[in-house]
What does this fold into?
Amino acid sequence: MDGKVTRRQAMVRLARILGGAWAAAFAALSSTFLLSTIRFGKKDEKTLLGDLSISGPEFKAVPLRISVDDGWYEQVEEKLLFIKEDQADPENPIVFSATCSHLGCNVEWDETAGDDGEFVCPCHAGRFGSDGQVLGGPPPNALQRIPASIEDGNVYVRIA
Ligand code: FES
It folds into this structure.
């Protein structure tokens, strides 16, 4: 070799540089998007979930990070909530914790199940109605209802 870079080598280097730049840009955009869709709050404090558009006629999953401080340690818990507007009480949206009362898996909303949809647990086939009550399977209790309110066009929850 005489130290010269062939046209082919130059093209390979250029492709690697462009590929790396594309991957870095994609990673940065992805992390920004993910962080922007996760809400943060503190246990026992009013936590902003979003504006009214977050609550619609169908249950929608909303991830949330809750900071829990017991005086010695502060840790962050990942939560998943399901939110839906309450047509009978528009000021108080319906919000459930997705945590199954059996062994703690996250339930999923299946709008095609039952008469008006069901929450289904993927771990042991537990089933809950749209009111959070147990319909079948091993769960001993209903889904936890989370206190929610609307103030100034925003939806707030309080995680106990
Ligand atoms: S954890 Fe949900 S049914 Fe077992």
Observations:
- The mean pLDDT is 84.
- The longest helix spans residues 7-37.
